[in-house]
Design goal:
The structure holds 2 protein chains of 2 kinds.
Chain A lengths: L18 H33 L4 H5 L8 E3 L1 E4 L2 E10 L2 E9 L4 E5 L9 E4 L6 E2 L1 E3 L4 H9 L2 H32 L5 H13 L3 H13 L7 H4 L7 H12 L3 H9 L4 H12 L1 H17 L2 H6 L9 H11 L4 H36 L1
Antiparallel strand pairs in A: 1-8, 2-3, 3-4, 3-7, 4-5, 5-6
Helix pairs in contact in A: 3-14, 4-8, 4-11, 5-8, 8-11, 9-10, 11-14, 13-14
Chain B lengths: L7 H5 L5 H40 L2 E2 L9 E2 L3 H9 L1 H33 L6 H9 L6 H11 L6 H10 L18 H10 L3 H12 L3 H9 L4 H12 L1 H15 L4 H7 L12 H11 L3 H29 L7
Antiparallel strand pairs in B: 1-2
The chains are: A alpha+beta, B mainly alpha.
Chain lengths: ~350, ~325
């Protein structure tokens, strides 16, 4: 990366400038540097958007322009003819090729068809085709229908919503237990919570799968949803951190007023921890939305239940070579998470930071 | 773990009311267990039992396609994995090799972005932060497909850019074949992974913001330049954050699966370089349904991850600086 240009802050390299001018120079160069990094970083996004608007022919034609375009044609006497870029007297003319010949061909000028056929000496095969800006929005519609997007979306939303409800509500209960109650061996239990976070899921997966297979749940949503209702370590950890920060005086006041244990949890703790709950909700929602491995193994052979991720992977296998459709489908799959992110980014990023910094 | 003192109400009670105290403690335990119950049940059903059963599975030859042929084979699966199946060592080997390339690049990239986002000179930081975070939210399958296009050797924009702007022979079969060249594939996969940089970037940024500014001021008076400050102040001060990222990254890579699977169906292309242990586990357990052998590989993944974690935590005391200690 071009990080060499990072200024040696207030060092001697730009001695002649006044401090203010130097500051401004720094600001401009650093901002430009960041923008260049961002440009390189987001180039695939640009590629995806542009490619998703291309025609099939453009995707498979070498030498086609980088932007969505289709070859220019000109209708002459009831037939469509391709338009080429013809060099004439040092200029480039866009003419339609009417009669093809090996060494010389006849063209027509679309701007002035009345002038009739124009003979041109040279091999037409060496000429470049003329292209015009022509985005194909229907790629999105085609991808939408071939992939059966409404069904995938329905499945994904169902999975994300139900498992998020289960994960957040169970984690909140457990985190409250860890934050507020004294139970013998609680420290050890909490270490176990932390251990489950770094335990490789593979090590428990085979027997779990075999068990779900035995009871006939493979090929259904149950193996993916039911375990979420038993609180996962990551969410417990995050919520407990928040709950510990809520002053105990609040619980005690409520208890003195005669509130029961659930009442305190519901009316005192949860409202205080709204930001944390929202962060965990978003985390889990995105986890479920992007989950691939779980649905891949548990829903194998039952395409009607596939979520977007697995459906998209299958689509990729079927439409290899039609990159325009693949890009359209990929972007479609990304739209909803991106919208949610742009609206909730502050909460989301705060949650990320808390899990990372507080350990 | 900070020991939470028994409920403050009990603390306030006076000696002589022991009976009441005992009752309140029992209440505490009862209600504590009620609140913990979802997790307590879950840990047994979804962690403890499968964890033990997984070891049991590794001692049988159990294929889900022919369950009636299941029999106890002792340590045959372990014998096979450790001594006669070269794929196991190879898969751990390529996994470590990939980790050795992708972890440092990923960390340095995240640190670089965090430094830019923390720089006084960069304008529009809120915008940049959002934009650098954004790709993290794209579903990973979509990310892989988008990158699969943009890295195409003929039509991909990176090759076209390299060729037209920097004059590097990049486009075409003799150019940079990001997806097909065994020498490039680890970098390719690393770049795809950079689209998930958001979390690491934000955590690192939070670490940077926690470094006291007086330290930099003092260093400047002593005449330390930018790089000197970066290496002698910034990196040591945020080493706990770097450590956290390395541990999670290393453990995550032991189960690296999705990207190579979506790119080429987990067939190891090119040249076996993407036969990661996560892929090998999937193929054995869920493609060939060798549940016994799959469980053995899973246990190996577990053991290696455990050793890795212990080694990393052991190394921490040599290079991770915790403020407040010493």
């Amino acid at each position: 990366m071009a990080s060499v240009t990072i200024p040696k802050s207030r060092s001697s390299s730009t001695q002649r400038l006044s401090p203010k001018a130097r500051q401004r120079l720094n600001a401009v160069s650093m901002t430009v540097l960041t923008a260049v990094v961002l440009f390189i970083f987001l180039l695939p996004m640009g590629y995806g958007i542009v490619t998703s608007l291309k025609t099939d022919t453009q995707v498979s034609t070498a030498g086609a322009p980088w932007y969505p375009a289709s070859p220019v044609t000109f209708e002459y006497e009831g037939r469509a003819y391709d338009v080429f870029e013809v060099p004439v007297d040092g200029r480039i003319e866009e003419w339609a090729l009417i009669n093809r010949g090996r060494e010389s061909s006849e063209f027509i000028d679309p701007d002035n068809p009345a002038a009739g056929l124009i003979p041109w000496e040279g091999r037409w095969r060496t000429l470049e085709q003329a292209w015009q800006w022509d985005p194909v929005w229907s790629n999105f519609r085609d991808a939408w229908t071939t992939i059966n997007f409404p069904r995938l979306l329905g499945n994904t939303v169902f999975y994300a919503v139900v498992s998020t409800i289960g994960a957040v509500s169970s984690a909140a209960l457990v985190a409250y237990g860890f934050a507020r109650y004294s139970i013998p061996g609680k420290g050890t239990l909490f270490l176990v919570v932390m251990a489950t976070i770094i335990l490789p899921p593979a090590v428990t997966l085979v027997p779990t799968y075999a068990f779900f297979n035995r009871i006939g749940w493979v090929g259904t949503w149950w193996p993916l949803i039911v375990p979420q209702f038993f609180a996962n370590g990551y969410n417990i950890f995050l919520l407990r951190q928040f709950f510990l920060g809520i002053p105990r005086a609040l619980d005690e006041a409520a208890m003195i007023d005669g509130a029961g244990h659930f009442r305190v949890f519901w009316s005192v703790i949860l409202p205080q921890a709204r930001a944390a709950l929202l962060a965990v909700t978003l985390f889990h929602f995105f986890f479920a939305w992007n989950d691939f491995f779980g649905p891949l193994i548990y829903l194998a052979g039952n395409p009607t239940l596939y979520p977007i991720t697995v459906g998209l992977n299958g689509f990729n296998g079927l439409y290899e070579g039609q990159d325009n459709l693949i890009q359209a489908a990929s972007l479609t799959a990304a739209v909803i998470p991106l919208i949610v992110f742009f609206f909730a980014q502050k909460t989301f990023i705060q949650g990320v930071v808390i899990t990372g910094v507080e350990k | 773990m900070e020991a939470i003192t028994p409920d403050a109400i009990t603390e306030g009670t006076q000696v002589g009311k022991k009976e009441k105290r005992g009752r309140i403690e029992k209440e505490q335990i009862k209600w504590g267990l009620i609140f913990l119950s979802p997790w307590l049940i879950g840990i047994v059903i979804f962690y403890l039992l499968p964890f033990i059963a997984s070891f049991g599975f590794s001692l049988v030859s159990f294929n889900l396609a022919v369950p009636e042929a299941t029999e106890f084979v002792g340590f045959d699966n372990w014998q096979r994995a450790l001594f006669s199946d070269p794929n196991v060592y190879e898969s751990f080997g390529v996994t470590f090799l990939f980790a050795a390339i992708s972890l440092p690049i990923g960390m340095i990239f995240a640190l670089m972005l965090a430094l830019l986002m923390n720089s006084k000179s960069v304008r529009g930081k809120a915008f940049f932060r959002t934009m650098f975070f954004m790709p993290t939210m794209v579903p990973l399958v979509a990310t892989v497909l988008i990158w699969g296009g943009v890295l195409n050797e003929q039509t991909g924009w990176y090759n076209i850019l390299l060729q037209n702007v920097f004059g590097i022979e990049a486009v075409g079969v003799s150019g940079l074949r990001w997806l097909a060249d065994p020498k490039l594939i680890y970098f390719t996969l690393t770049f795809i992974g950079l689209w998930g940089v958001g979390n690491t970037m934000m955590i690192t940024l939070a670490g940077l913001q926690g470094v006291p500014t007086e330290m930099y001021e003092a260093a400047e008076i002593d005449g330390a330049g930018y790089w000197r400050q970066l290496i002698s102040i910034t990196v040591p001060m945020i080493s706990p954050v770097l450590f956290y990222n390395i541990v999670l990254g290393a453990i995550g890579l032991m189960q690296y699966f999705l990207v190579p699977f979506v790119l080429n169906g987990g067939n190891g292309f090119p040249d076996g370089t993407t036969n990661y242990v996560g892929i090998y586990f999937y193929n054995q357990a869920f493609k060939f349904f060798n549940m016994g052998y799959g469980a053995t590989i899973a246990w190996l993944i577990f053991i290696v991850s455990l050793v890795l974690t212990v080694v990393l935590f052991g190394s921490a005391r040599y290079w991770v600086y915790y403020a407040g200690e010493e």
